[in-house]
Amino acid sequence: MSQRISIDTADGSFAAYLATPDPANARGSAIVVIQEIFGINADMRETCDNFARDGFVAICPDLYWRLEPNVELTDKTKEEWDKAFALLNAFNVDKGVEDIATTIAHTRKLPGVTGGVGTVGFCLGGLLAYLTATRTDTDSAVSYYGVNLDKFLGEAGKIKSPLLMHIAEEDEFVPAEARAKIIEALKDNKHVEIHTYPGCQHAFARNNGIHYVDAAAKAANARTLKAFEAM
């Protein structure tokens, strides 16, 4: 079952998409799904629905609410890309992490959530998922092709929960030098597990995305599921 809910903060309220599992299949744990630069679109809702089918409570908060509520874009047109990049450039990462921390706290109190609460993010969300491992009480974090993550490697020493990272080896939004820097900084961290995907571009796991790679997406998603099963 899915529904739109509202989460309150000291600065106001924001919406979130909530998908809940069949009670017969429920695990008791939950996942906060962190959006790409396109807002809560069909891809994010499908991702939440898939986690719910696997027995997790899944919730995707509207992190653009301070700029423009209810953004829903795709990767199919130049106009949508232009708007997505404008929102990304205006986005406050620190406030975004605060809103995710608020979402985690809210999720822990939801009916049926008796176990861990993890985070998973894609693109912009991949960066934010990494930061949840350094700044929040998430029980497990998964980062898919995070952008600008190399700028926050100084926080790596604060990682206190398991962090799984999926890195595309041909990511056009993360230069090879930045990818190498990320891997070098994190490869010996006992909390971090890194997987790279040869021949894959950015967003290789985006549902119905223009760069979707079926085998790589399935491999990454299986590793993600395993990580959350261990919460």
Automatic annotation (TrEMBL):
Entry EC number(s): 3.1.1.45
What keywords appear on the UniProt entry?
Hydrolase
The UniProt entry, under Pfam families, shows: DLH
Q: What is the lineage of its organism?
A: Bacteria, Pseudomonadati, Pseudomonadota, Betaproteobacteria, Burkholderiales
Protein name, please?
Answer: Carboxymethylenebutenolidase
InterPro entries documented for this protein: AB_hydrolase_fold, Dienelactn_hydro, Dienelactone_hydrolase-like
Q: Which GO terms describe its molecular function?
A: carboxymethylenebutenolidase activity
> What are the Dienelactone hydrolase domain coordinates in residue numbering?
14-230
Look up and give the organism this protein is from.
Answer: Cupriavidus pampae
Q: What class of enzyme is it?
A: hydrolase
* Protein's UniProt keywords contain Hydrolase: yes
